[in-house]
Amino acid sequence: MDYFDIFISILGSAIRLSIPLLFTALAGLFSERAGIFDIGLEGKMLASAFAAACVAYWTGNAWFGLIGGIGVSIAFSFMHGFASITNRGNQIVSGVALNFVAAGLTIVLGQAWFRQGGRTGQVPPEGRFSSIILPGADMMRDIPIIGPLYANVISGNNILTYIAFLMVPVSWWVLYRTRFGLRLRAVGENPGAVDTAGISVAWMRYRALIVAGFLCGFAGTYLSIAQSAAFINNMSAGKGYIALAALIFAKWKPVPVMLACLLFGFLDAFANFMQGKSLPLIGEVPVQIFQALPYILTCVLLAGFIGTARPPKAGGVPYTKER
Amino acid sequence: MSTVSVPLPAWINYGLIPLLNLILAFFFSGLVVWGIGENPFEALQLLLIGALGRGEGIGFTLFYTTSFIFTGLSVAVAIHAGLFNIGSEGQAYLGGLGAALVALAMDSYVPWYVTMPFAVIGAALFGAACAAIPAWLQAKRGSHIVITTIMFNFIVSSLMNYVLVRVLIVPGKMAPETRTFLPGGQLPKLDWLIAMFGGKIGAAPLNFSFLIALIMCFLVWVLIWRTKLGYEMRTLGISPTAASYAGIRYSKIVMITMLISGGLAGMMALNPVMGASARLQIEFVGGAGFVGIAVSLMGRNHPAGIVLAALLFGILYQGGAELSFDMPSITRDMIVVIQGMVILFAGALEYMLRPAVVRLYQQLTGK
After folding, report:
1. Among all residues of chain B, which has the CA nearest to that of A97?
2. In chain B, where the domains are located
3. Residue A232 — very low, low, confident or very high, per pLDDT cuts 50/70/90?
4. Domain B65-315 classification at class level
């Protein structure tokens, strides 16, 4: 295998690995730009992965699975909202709590319903999102450089992958070109001003959380019925936190979010590829370095060595009307 | 008049409301048990018998309690200064390395009571080291401590993975763990403590670190409520601007607080590493750092409350393990659900019931 083929195969797997990150980071983008810290992304992803796998298993329909995943994810968003908006509780505590509830509940219910040690049943092929071969992929395969790139990286992904990339410009448009987006960003920066304008801060933040739940549902669904064919214990395995890191790394902006997710996905794919191989001159590089790199990079960014990351001003602060 | 500013007597604030929240958490956990077709009351009974029924069960319960006291104190100390340390998990993990290095270096030369003080210091130093960078980022660079401590949980996890798989592993063995410490590197069992109450400790790993945990509770109480440093920490926690007017240096207090918090988390490692398994194992913390968040919230960040809350979670952990034997349809992870519910109701929703309680209190007292 020459270097180009290796590069193509790593790139393909990088894209597949970055999709759940992308959906989740965009979800975090909506809630954090509205001033709600969302540590619970991990839990939402896990719960929706479980729900999607269950529904897809019972109905044999991937789209019903997606709806199930989104539904559960939005339900978790509502719990987060109820605690942190309606009751003005600590947003981080609420997120941590939801992560625990999701981690426990998926295994407890999974064991009670399927009795496979926390796994759900194997989802039938029609209950999964399978890969789509774009037109002309086979024809173009023999063209040097562009051919393999088109056939193995751009084509051959499942529909959720394309939706993920579509969500990037859509998110940008919603956030920066609609009234909803303007108000959403305002509510994250200066909720008092939004309130003065006669717009309900609470309802605005709830809507942001619903959008976040919606997007996170895609991420979970992707994990359980697109990337694999069943839910497995603790399937999200910290991806929600990597997505959070990507969101910060991207300084809370949609297009950089996509690039950060692709970078972190690429690191993951590269780590998988490097397992047990050695680099020229350096020798064998421990895989753990690649696993830690997204977090290290984010910390370096936060230290102010790569520009500055300025979070939304009102983030994490419950809004109280003046009395 | 709004109910937020109505003062309530301490027994309602610190007794009744937490209790009501706890009952709500258990009610919803019970719903889950009921939803999967088991009897919640029977489950609760089995859980309590498993945790407190025999000497061995109590030994295990107190063993878990020990870990949770350390991590609970770690979270609480940070909260007093207005910092949310989510990194106790990683700090405890790295603390394990500190304890293990001391034990490995000294166990063949000296008895355990000589090793122990060095191990306590080693564990605390490594735990504090893990908290140092997030603390510095918060103090000097203004980045959010929650985010950086989360990042450090993962960084430490990768680091420890590397250290155990590549460096400290016993050559020729498959399991990523250190060699077993000799008795000079182990903490003795507290069999006499259980025997005092007429029980048998059996295989339970309750060990000397339980006493260290209790001592730390006292020291933390002294620190927070009886020293100048503690006063400055609490001032910063309540009002950073007031602290700054009073000449309290923000970055200094943040650094010190986080180092203490990390040190306490690091000491948690003494319990499983030197007390129970006598070796450093991969992922030995097993979520105790996160339980610390729940423990601190439940215990209202006070050492006495933390001991009680840690005991509650110790009972849940041990009882939950026994319960999953007796009721196979309930897995051990039911504890995680209960834990989540407790954090949700006692932490995030702590003010939910307050308005209702205030109104009831006003009606009853006629004010």
Report:
1. B340
2. 65-315
3. confident
4. mainly alpha
